[in-house]
Amino acid sequence: MTALDHGPLILGGNAFGWTSDRDESFAVLDAFLAAGGTSIDTADVYSAWVDGHVGGESETILGEWMASRGVRDRVVVATKVFSHPERPGLAAANVRAAVDDSLRRLQTDRIDLYYAHRDDPEVPQEEVAAVFDELVRAGKVREVGASNFEPARLRSLVEVAESAGLARPTTSQDRYNLVSREIEGELLPTLDELGIVEAPYVSLASGFLTGKYRPGVEVDSQRAGMAGRYLEDPANVALLDVLDDVAAAHGTTVAAVSLAWLRQQPLVAAPLASARTPQQLSELLASADVELTDDELARLAA
User: Fold this and answer.
1) Which of 40, 157, 210, 275 has its CA 20 to 30 A from that of 9?
2) Cis geometry, peptide bond prior to residue 287 (ω within 30 degrees of 0)
3) Is 59 within the bounds of a domain?
4) Measured CA angle at 20 (ends 103, 69), to 5 deg
5) What secondary structure, in 3-state letters, does 132-161 show?
6) What is the CATH number of the domain that holds 173?
């Protein structure tokens, strides 16, 4: 149902203005574009969790970069509404205000993919569907997405939209990677039935699937605590051995194999991953050249 081409990797913008300053963010974006990347994902809330930030920092940097480079027509831009401290929820008036805020920060007249960052059970789905359709008809948004929705709620939103002839979600964004596979149970079959593609986030499990986190290894990173928890499951430790084998067979990195596995899953449009530096980005982009065999996909999945 989506007409958007994300390429082999969607660049996550959560680092812009947080772990990467403006110059570093520009360097990563320049390198991504130079390597043929097209799709960039952000949200209005990035990075309100940082002391002194108010939200919108990532969109602002992305907007300044697109304007300074004159590249708006060369990239696919996705952003989200719901979580900004001053624009919470999916009430129609809030969504209208939030999209205009995002367009201003992004210095553009349109958003290619506009997500509901999460479900809002306090707002009737008829209202949610109607306001997103309004944005599409106004030309402010090309396609609609839904992130972190329960399968039943996503299904009902689609039904509401279709019954009223309104724009409906084309893309779902959810937590999915080699060690977080919960969406395979009910959500992925639902997406398949509804004709919706998946754009997974936390594709590298907070860094665990880069392979740098090993039993007995200390890693100095803001994400060390999150990634280290995966080592508590023996199955995840065993997975690292398989990743090492497959990476060696392809002459590439564990991160590239992890992203390639995700990219080759049915329904996945492209995995989403962020980079703090151009060097980190090059490791992510290497995944585009990795094509895993059916046997390798099965070994990793097992």
Assistant:
1) 157
2) no
3) yes
4) 50
5) HHHHHHCCCEEEEEEECCCHHHHHHHHHHH
6) 3.20.20.100
CA distances from 190 to 184, 195, 232, 265 (A): 10, 9, 31, 15
Kindly state whether residue 239 falls inside one of the protein's structural domains: no
Tally of domains in the chain = 1
- Strand duo 10-12 + 76-81: pairing: unpaired
Is residue 237 one of the residues assigned to a domain? no
Catalytic residues: 46
Chain segment 89-110, per-residue pLDDT in tens? 999 999 999 999 999 999 999 9
> Is residue 113 a contact partner of residue 76, using CB atoms and an 8 Å limit?
yes
Q: Which residues pair with 273 in a beta bridge?
A: 11
Tokens of 57: 């920092």
260-292: per-residue pLDDT in tens?
999 999 999 999 999 999 999 999 999 999 999
For residue 118, give the DSSP letter: S
Helix (H, G, I), strand (E, B) or coil at 78: strand
Q: What is the 3-state secondary structure (H, E, C) of 275-294?
A: CCCHHHHHHHHHHHHCCCCH
Average pLDDT on 217-239 reads 81
In a domain, 72, yes or no: yes
The tens digit of pLDDT for each residue in 66-76 reads 999 999 999 99
Range of the domain at 200: 10-204+258-290
